[in-house]
Design a protein that fits this description.
The chain is α+β, with helices and mostly antiparallel strands. Helices cover about 50% and strands about 10% of the residues. It binds protoporphyrin IX containing FE.
Length: about 475
């Protein structure tokens, strides 16, 4: 049974912030299940929040000039907070995401190099094959009363990352077990952060994460060893790598002449698997749900896709060049990333010296050395000072020459500055292809009585799936 939608429903449901409480332990208890519980309703109205968390000064940075100071202008003095490393270290060691300074710089140069070689056109066939496999799976389920689109998006993004990193499709049981271990790790890591705030020892916190991390790391180590063994018989060409793993093995840093060691490759690949599929699955699940929520936007995307594919065979997949014509589909994806950013929170630490945090209304706060700063796309992108009608789903606001009325630096689903996500273009290409192919073939509708229950941990996910009715489009 599908729901009828009235115009009042342009505001899609979201976990509303809870009333203010000055009781820090109560807030931490609220944050145990989902980091959203750490927030209060007024956090969505103020430019800068401050609290003392059991002796640790904590700031919530919402004002765009301050966001720029932290992420761009004084990025070296606001490195990633050590808590990021603590909750991810069992899985990704000292890979790019959580380290700072020179240790981060040379890794970033190598990752950028690898992404340049594995350019978008080269990875497109792998994305297209994984999308075709998704469509085949959906066809097999055509008599089901509903589809858990979140599960399907998790599978297709895991398949894309398998094909682009390791050149093999997501095969049956083994790979699925690995992605389930990723999901469990993410759940436990969310809780580990709250335990860390309560000052539980690092080793104790990390121990709870080690089991799932080991399952994943051993599997990735084996894949890397197999590849290195192949290379010893048949050396790879730097100019013609077969996949991202080849790119990472053959890249060398121009400045330090360093390449990744075997252990470092395991760290980086573990992180790329995590970063590359969890975030994309989250955004694709929510984008599908929003299209079902707003049938007129869904129809507009469908017409756009039909226009570019009108002279093609029905089974012919879209081509890489088609995607740049899908402007409304891109706007829908951006509006999804605004309302439901997959990475809801970044944490940084003030280092080197204390500083002052000033906001445009003249307010000033002392930010001591060692303070923890939270920048939350979830809050900033729904903040009433930065966005007109912030809770409404209105993809039009992202169309050129129309409504560019939001504050600069208030849209940061991929971060900002030197630490900005290097996979943003990859993620966008993948998302537009999957959404366009889905909507081209199916009408998506809501299921009465089902609303995704969203939780924020390392990424934003729905704990009860995202159930939709899929019917063949004409
Ligand atoms: C919708 C999908 C994605 C979103 C929303 C996303 C978002 C982010 C965010 C917010 C950061 C950190 C910014 C910060 O802390 O300042 C990040 C970092 C990163 N992401 Fe993504 N990401 C996505 C997809 C991908 C994909 C597909 C890949 C690779 C295949 C990737 C690779 C990375 C890497 C390597 C970093 C670390 C960069 C650094 O620390 O220098 N991401 N991403």
């Amino acid at each position: 049974m599908t729901e009828r939608l009235s115009p009042k429903r342009s505001i899609p449901p979201w976990p509303k912030p809870l009333p203010y409480t000055s009781n820090i332990l109560r807030r931490l208890a609220r944050g145990w299940k989902s980091w959203f519980g750490l927030l209060n309703e007024w956090d969505f109205r103020i430019p800068l929040g401050e609290l003392n968390l059991l002796g640790l000064p904590v700031f919530l940075v919402n004002s765009p000039p301050l966001i720029r100071k932290v992420l761009v202008e004084e990025v070296d003095q606001f490195p990633k907070h050590p808590y990021t490393l603590w909750i991810l270290e069992p899985l990704i060691g000292r890979a790019i995401f959580s380290v700072n300074g020179e240790e981060w710089q040379w890794q970033r140069r190598l990752i950028d190099q690898a992404f340049q070689v594995a350019e978008l056109k080269r990875v497109f066939p792998a994305m297209s094959d994984a999308t075709k496999a998704l469509l085949d799976r959906l066809e097999l389920q055509k008599d089901n009363p509903y589809i858990d689109i979140d599960k399907e998006m998790t599978l297709v993004t895991a398949d894309v990352i398998m094909r682009t990193i390791l050149s093999r499709p997501l095969g049956g049981g083994e790979a699925i077990k690995i992605f389930e271990a990723f999901a469990r790790y993410q759940r436990r890591a969310g809780r580990a952060l709250v335990l860390r705030f309560l000052r539980l020892p690092k080793t104790w916190v990390q121990k709870s994460l080690q089991k799932d991390a080991n399952i994943i790391r051993e599997w990735i180590l084996k894949a890397i060893e197999d590849r290195l063994e192949q290379h010893s018989r048949n050396p790879p060409s730097h100019l013609n790598p077969v996949d991202l793993l080849d790119c990472l093995i053959t890249s060398q840093d121009q400045q330090t002449h360093r390449s990744f060691s075997k252990e470092e490759l395991v760290d980086q690949i573990c992180f790329l698997f995590l970063a590359g599929h969890e975030t994309s699955a989250s955004s694709l699940g929510m984008a599908s749900w929003l299209l079902a929520f707003s049938p007129k936007d869904q129809q507009r995307v469908r017409e756009e896709v039909k226009e570019i594919s009108k002279d093609r065979q029905p089974n012919e997949m879209l081509r890489a060049d088609d995607l740049r014509h899908l402007k409304y589909c891109v706007a829908v994806f951006n509006e999804t990333l605004r309302l439901y950013p997959p990475v809801g929170f970044f944490i940084r630490e003030r280092s080197q010296s204390e500083t002052t945090l000033s906001v445009p209304n003249g307010e000033k706060r002392r930010c001591p050395l060692g303070a923890l700063l939270t920048l939350s796309p979830w809050v900033i992108q729904r903040h009433e000072n930065h966005w007109p009608d912030p809770q409404a789903f209105r993809p039009d606001r992202f169309l050129e020459d129309k409504e560019r009325t939001w504050m600069r630096d208030a849209f940061l689903p991929f971060g900002l500055g030197p630490r900005k996500c290097p996979g943003a273009a990859f993620a966008q290409q993948e998302a537009i292809l999957v959404l366009a192919e889905l909507v081209r073939r199916y009408n998506l509708s809501l299921i009465s009585g089902h609303t995704p229950e969203l939780m924020s941990r390392l990424t934003l996910r729905s704990v009860n799936g995202i159930n939709l009715l899929l019917q063949k489009a004409d």
